[in-house]
Amino acid sequence: MTSTISPILGAKYLSFYRDIGDRLGEANILQEFGKLQENPQQALEYLQQAQNLYIQIGDIYSQSRNLLFVTDAQLSMEDSNAAINSLNHAAELTTIINYAPLQEYAQTRIAEINSTPTSE
């Protein structure tokens, strides 16, 4: 999935959402910044900022969805344990809101990671 927010436009939106106190808008832009990053560490930093805001505002769906992007960054950094923890947390959150598709997706990803041989 490709993002349609350019970095310049995204920075303007981020500033706007911060100025008006729209934390959900701010979190969504931070998430998009994270998804746009080629460097997984930078991606993780943006995604964690978004996650913190989603937690503060109590948006459980966005928390669980964002953890899927966090997982991608963690896997890019070859940290499968952290990725599995993120997916488990996402699955737990989806049980709170009773959203089976996201829970099933997280469980499928965990199985895929566990079935992938590690190179040691």
Question: Can I get a quick summary?
Answer:
By secondary structure, this protein is mainly alpha-helical. 81% of the residues lie in helices and 0% in strands.
Describe this protein's structure.
The protein is mainly α. It has one domain (7-115): Alpha Horseshoe (Serine Threonine Protein Phosphatase 5, Tetratricopeptide repeat), CATH 1.25.40.10. The chain is built from six helices and no strands. Helix 1 (7-20) packs antiparallel against helix 2 (23-36) and helix 5 runs antiparallel to helix 6 (100-115). The radius of gyration is 15 Å and the shape is flat.
Keyphrases for this structure?
flat; mainly alpha; Serine Threonine Protein Phosphatase 5, Tetratricopeptide repeat; single chain; about 120 residues
How many DSSP H or I helices?
6
Low-pLDDT residue spans: none
Number of strands: 0
Query: From the structure provided, what is the oligomeric state, counting identical versus distinct chains?
Result: single chain
Structural class based on helices, strands and sheet pairing: mainly alpha
- Architecture per CATH nomenclature, i.e. the level-2 architecture: Alpha Horseshoe
CATH class: Mainly Alpha
What's the helical proportion of residues?
over 70%
Globally, the shape reads: flat
Percentage of residues in strands: under 5%
What is the CATH superfamily classification? Tetratricopeptide repeat domain
Provide mean pLDDT, rounded.
90
One letter per element, helices H and strands E, the order comes to HHHHHH
**CATH topology type:** Serine Threonine Protein Phosphatase 5, Tetratricopeptide repeat
Q: Kindly, what is the distance between the CA atoms of the first and last residues, rounded to a whole number of angstroms?
A: 31 Å
Number of domains as seen in the coordinates: 1
Radius of gyration: 15 Å
Largest sheet: none
